[in-house]
Design brief:
D-Maltodextrin-Binding Protein, domain 2
C-alpha cells in the first residue's frame, strides 16, 4: 500500500514537472512597470503560452546593459536611438515596435513657471529654467531621462549647468514622482506612470500634446549569436504574442479612470 502511494506521488510530481511553465527573463523600464500594464499582461501570457516572464525592472540604459551582458533574453524599452545602437552593435537581433503613449509635464497646481500656457515642450523648459522653479529629474540614464536631456538641449539649455533648483534623483519613475510630490516640483513623466501614480499631492498635469513628447516602446530579443545561452525560442514566442490580437485587446483595453494608457502599433 505504501509503495503504491509513493508511486502515485512520484507520478504526480513527475507530471507536474513535465507541465511546469517555461521561464525567460526580460528587462523592462520602470515606467512600463509603474503603469500597471505588466499586471494585466503577465497572467495572460502565462495562461496562453505556459510561459513565466520574469521581469527585471530598471531604466532603459541599465536594461540595455543587461542585454549586452546576456543577463536577460529580451528587453522592452523606450529610447529609439539607444535601441538602434543596441541592434547595430549586434547585441539584439532586431527592434519591434509594440505600443506608444506620450510624455507629459507635471507640476504644482499653482504653476509658478506658468508652463500651462506654453506653446511647446521647448517653451516649457525655458520657462522652468528662467523661473528657476524646482524640477525633479530621473537622473538614471533611463528612456525618460534621455528624453528629458534631449528636450533641454533642444531648448538651448544644459542641465549640467543648473543650480540647486534642479534635482536629479537617480531613481525610477515612481521614486521621481514621489520626490516631485514631496517637493511640489515639476517633473517629466510618461503618461501611464502619472495616471497610475497614487501620491499626487498638489501635482497636476500641466502640459502635453507636443509631437516631440511621443513615447514609443519597443521589444528587442537578445542576440543568441553573442550569448548562446539566451532563450531565443522563448523570446520569439513572446514576441509573437505581444504583436497578436489578444495582446492588442489587453493593451488598448487597459485604462485608468476611463483614460487609455497605451496605443498598440505593432506590425
Amino acid at each position: 500500500m505504501k509503495q503504491t502511494l509513493l508511486l502515485a506521488l512520484l507520478t504526480l510530481f513527475a507530471s507536474g514537472m513535465a507541465h511546469a511553465a517555461d521561464q525567460m527573463r526580460m528587462a523592462v523600464t520602470t515606467s512600463f512597470h509603474n503603469s500597471g500594464l505588466a499586471d494585466v499582461l503577465l497572467p495572460q501570457i502565462a495562461n496562453d503560452l505556459d510561459l513565466e516572464v520574469q521581469l527585471l525592472v530598471v531604466g532603459t540604459g541599465q536594461a540595455l546593459k543587461l542585454g549586452e551582458a546576456g543577463d536577460v533574453d529580451a528587453i522592452l524599452v523606450h529610447s529609439r536611438a539607444a535601441e538602434e545602437a543596441f541592434v547595430e552593435g549586434g547585441y539584439g537581433t532586431h527592434r519591434r515596435e509594440i505600443m506608444y503613449n506620450d510624455f507629459v509635464f507635471v507640476g504644482p497646481a499653482n504653476d509658478p513657471a506658468i508652463i500651462g500656457g506654453a506653446g511647446a515642450a521647448e517653451d516649457v523648459l525655458q520657462r522652468i529654467a528662467e523661473a528657476e522653479a524646482v524640477f525633479v529629474s530621473r537622473g538614471d540614464d533611463s528612456g525618460t531621462h534621455k528624453k528629458e536631456l534631449s528636450l533641454w538641449a533642444e531648448a538651448g539649455l544644459d542641465a549640467d549647468t543648473f543650480d540647486g533648483w534642479y534635482n536629479a534623483v537617480g531613481a525610477g519613475m515612481g521614486a521621481a514622482l514621489n520626490t516631485a510630490s514631496g517637493l511640489n516640483a515639476y517633473v517629466l513623466s510618461d503618461r501611464a506612470s502619472w495616471l497610475n501614480f497614487g501620491n499626487k499631492g498638489d501635482l497636476v498635469l500641466l502640459f502635453a500634446g507636443d509631437p516631440v513628447l511621443f513615447n514609443q516602446y519597443a521589444y528587442l530579443p537578445v542576440n543568441p549569436a553573442r550569448h548562446d545561452h539566451v532563450k531565443s525560442d522563448l523570446a520569439a514566442k513572446l514576441e509573437r504574442w505581444l504583436t497578436s490580437a489578444p495582446a492588442q485587446a489587453l493593451i488598448v483595453g487597459y485604462t485608468i479612470e476611463g483614460e487609455t494608457l497605451f496605443v498598440f502599433n505593432a506590425e
